[in-house]
Every structure is written in C-alpha cells, then in structure tokens.
Write a structure and sequence with these properties.
6% helix; mainly beta; MltA-interacting protein MipA; signal; MipA; Porin; 214 residues; cell outer membrane; globular
Length: 214
C-alpha cells in the first residue's frame, strides 16, 4: 500500500512522508489483522466485540540539521484492549492502549463511531471520534525540555482531547482483487498546536493500494 503522511511539525526535512507498507487483513473469529492493528477476540456476538490488540503509532519527529539539538521522537507500538457495541445505526467503540516500546510510556484513550455504507461495487467505512493523549504521550511528541532545545524554548504540554475523522473504502474488482483506500484527519487542539515544534492544526494521512484475497 502506498502511504502519504503530511506532518504538523516544523523544523523537519520532510513535511510529506511518502512510502510503501504491506498490509494484511485476516479474521478467523479468534485472531484478526486490520492493516496496522492485530489482536485476538476475547468475546463476540452480534452486538458486542471485546478485543486485546496492538497497533502501530507512526508519529515521528526527525529535526533538520539546523535544529539537531532538538530531540528526535520515534514511532511506537501501542497495546491494550477495545470494546465495540454494534447497533443498527453503526458501531460505538472504546479503546485504550499503552506504549509497549518504552518510547514514552504514555496512554491513548479513543472513543469513536463507525459505520458501513455499501453502494454498488463500493463499500465505505467512515469513522468519527476523539483521542485522549495523556501527559506522557504529549510531552514526548510535543514537549520541549532541557532549558530550551536549540533556543526554540521550553514547552510542557498536559493531556489533551483531539477530534479526528477517517474514511476507508474498498472497490470490488473481482473475486481475487480489490482496490482499497483510506484517509485520516487529526485535529490538534491548543495543548499540541502551541508547541514550538508544531505549525499546523491538522495532520493528514492518505493511503491507496490493492488487496488480494487468497
């Protein structure tokens, strides 16, 4: 899958990160893989899903040569659990996850609404929600410490609640091949936008690829 990320950070060499990543979709009612997320079902029926899962958090900050005194911020893996209530109006999901690579030891709590919309050969999956980053998460990815990194200034953010929306879709080509796409917008509230290393309110992520069914 081709992936394009537009970063909210300044002082970086690449505002637009373009790359290729493999994705796997698999579900046998015990184990599942959904792109960047993998996990197991603890319980599921027609209206409820309990999962233990882990997902890739690709947020990164790699400063330019001029600002090498700024600390790098690396991507991480977050693991935890989720519950989704399935209704005739869509799904209502609650997920909690913690950094397991000891990058920041922070936690993210997500609440969201998901739906499935079918139209001829297309299937769309819109999602709207809120992400609550705790203080450890925000200090690592948006904080400035140590007496002012490279004269940029100190900044110690607290926890934040940030809205986001995404839309994923599948176009049915034949029994073996499908075209898939996705995009996501994350809105940075003041706790994050006021960081000296940030100069955009929105973070964008776009993806496009082909899915082969075995």
């Amino acid at each position: 899958m081709l992936d394009l990320n537009i970063s909210p950070y300044q002082f970086v060499e690449k505002k637009y990160n373009f790359g290729f990543k493999p994705v796997v979709f698999y579900d046998d009612d015990t184990f599942y893989s959904e792109g960047d997320e993998v996990g197991v079902y603890l319980y599921q029926d027609d209206q409820n899903e309990f999962r233990i899962n882990a997902y890739y958090d690709g947020l990164e900050f790699v400063p330019t040569d001029e600002y090498q005194n700024l600390n790098k911020r690396k991507w991480s893996i977050l693991a935890g659990a989720s519950y989704m209530r399935i209704t005739s109006y869509g799904g209502f999901k609650l997920q909690i996850a913690k950094d397991i690579l000891s990058r920041h030891n922070g936690m993210v709590l997500t609440t969201s609404y998901l739906a499935e919309i079918k139209s001829n050969l297309w299937t769309f999956y819109p999602e709207f929600g809120l992400k609550r980053n705790d203080q450890k998460y925000n200090e690592y990815y948006y904080g400035i410490y140590g007496g002012g990194e490279n004269n940029v200034g100190n900044y110690n953010p607290e926890s934040s609640v940030n809205p986001y929306m995404s839309l994923n879709g599948i176009y049915f080509v034949n029994n073996k091949w499908n075209i898939i796409f996705g995009f996501e917008f994350n809105y940075l509230t003041n706790q994050l936008f006021e960081s000296p290393i940030v100069n955009k309110r929105l973070e964008y992520d776009f993806s496009l690829g082909a899915l082969y069914s075995f």
